[in-house]
Model the fold of this input.
Amino acid sequence: MRYGDGSIKNNLVIQTMLEHRSIRKYTDQTPSDELVKTIVRAGQQAPFASQYYTVLLSKNRKRNPFGAPLLFTICVDSHKFELIMARRGWRLATNDLILLFFGIQDAAYMSENMVIAARSLGLGSCFLGSAMFRADKIAEEYHLPQRVFPLVQLAMGYPAEEPSPRPRYPMEFTLFEDKYPELSAKMVSIAMKQMDDGYLAQDYYRKAKCMISLEGDRKETFTYDNYSWTEHISRKWGQWHPEPKELLKQLEKRGFNLTSKKQND
Ligand SMILES: Cc1cc2nc3c(=O)[nH]c(=O)nc-3n(C[C@H](O)[C@H](O)[C@H](O)COP(=O)(O)O)c2cc1C
Done:
């Protein structure tokens, strides 16, 4: 493949990215160490503000979510940077919020590069957002020094499923040239419909058995025939976020199993 010849149709990179889908079932095959290193190396080559991250790896298939052969924990890491600065006789003075924002970006670009590299090599993966709620447990398990924060986890292995790619918003709802438009009710409805129809066509929430229950005195009016993505994320973010421990309990109740093979978002 040559870069820069303007050909979109046969572009393997674009094709790999457009074929992305999260994988939650894995075969028994363990990816080789060479493969693992190649994927992490490709991740490292992402643009960075300060390489403000560390990647932890667990090959404990019995404990990894989805029974995945690989589980990466991507951390925002201030510790390494502080050691480097100390050797130069400096101490961190910038405020933590700025470091956190840049650190999250460094870690995110790095881990998405890993996702794409893995896919291009025939592996599948799935992010797990629960890491930040279990930061204390993960810190203990991996002996994390102070100021290393587990941001997100990435399960990875050879796919034992090939689900259809999930829908995304229409381009008109995503890319705005020159100015942010006034979003009409029609534009919002079209975007919602594209997402909802896409999820309903895959019968996603029924298969995953993960309808979020309503809090307070709201009455349930949805069934799996019409419960779809926009209702799901409205319930997810429209109800008061409980304390992490309570949230974990609720997630477990809703069928998320945060410590073993079965997980769903
Ligand atoms: C930060 C983050 C956290 C996620 N957490 C979970 C999770 O806890 N469980 C899960 O099954 N999927 C999780 N996902 C995967 C998303 O559900 C998935 O990427 C999204 O639904 C789009 O589907 P696709 O990746 O198949 O295109 C997460 C993704 C991201 C980026």
Notes: Residues 212 and 235 are 7 Å apart (CA to CA). The pocket of flavin mononucleotide is lined by residues 20-22, 24, 126-130, 152, 165-166, 263-265 (CB under 6 Å).
